[in-house]
Amino acid sequence: MFIGHWAPAFAAAALQRAPRLPVLVLAAQVVDWLFFALLPLGIERMRVVPGISAMNPMDLYHLPYTHSLLGGAAIGVLFALACLGFTGNRRGALIAGLVVLSHWALDWLVHVPDLTLAGSPPKLGLGLWNRPAIAIPLELGVIGAGLWLYTRAMRPSAMRLAVFALVLLAFQLVNWFGPPPQAVTLSLSLTALAAFGLVTLLAWWLDTSTNLPRAGLAIDARRG
Question: How open is the CA angle 109-113-117, to the nearest 5 degrees?
Fold first, then answer.
């Protein structure tokens, strides 16, 4: 799962008293932000193994902190506490924490077994990366649904929404069909972090175009 991870952020942004969209976009991928920061340090590890799955050649063989359910929950709690400390918004903090936790659930759908509950076997993953005919429409459908919910509730600029959606689609097409990495290098981590940063900035740009005074108001209130 790549751009599909941002679907819960868009859906959550339509909820009452939710954090602003860029905060939720950061929450949705903070697990991978941390993973790609830890990767060059050797704290977590992956390697290129062509054929390990039909859609992804990366063997994510040591992810005890960021991609265990316990680790993801801990990251979610810390993220929620940070949101609470900055805003005092308990509901918003809870929403942000749940968006963080959604990362593990979405990864479980597509990963071959490499996720854990608490950092040690058994390793889990439904393995839809081996079923492109399912994984591709699933990813596009999930992010499409998230964008639809956000657009319906927040009414952002159509032009900015189109630019944002095209950037996401371009990233996903490169992820699916671009040349696979030959090795795990520092540049791989930097490229991933740059992509996450760009999407977060674009989320801020999109969110500032909404026709509402503040993101996160109740959907029903927006209709009135």
Answer: 85
Residue 109 is assigned to a structural domain of this protein: yes
Name beta bridge partners: 45.
62
Digit-coded pLDDT (tens) for 83-107: 999 999 999 999 999 999 999 999 9
Band (pLDDT 50/70/90 cuts) for residue 212 is low
C-alpha dihedral over 93, 94, 100, 106, to 10 degrees?
-150
Sequential DSSP letters for 57-68: -EEEEE-TTTSB
Task: Kindly give the residue spans of alpha helices, DSSP state H, lying in the chain.
Answer: 7-13, 21-38, 69-87, 90-110, 132-154, 158-177, 186-207, 219-223
CA distances from 84 to 18, 33, 77, 95, 216 (A): 12, 21, 10, 11, 15
Range of the domain at 128: 3-210
Q: Is residue 164 part of a domain?
A: yes
Does residue 221 form part of some domain?
no
- Asked whether residue 219 is assigned to any structural domain, the reply reads no
What is the domain count for the chain?
1
Cβ neighbours of 37 (radius 10 Å): 15
Per-residue pLDDT reduced to its tens digit, 8-45: 999 999 998 999 999 999 999 999 999 999 999 999 99
CA distance 45 to 69: 17
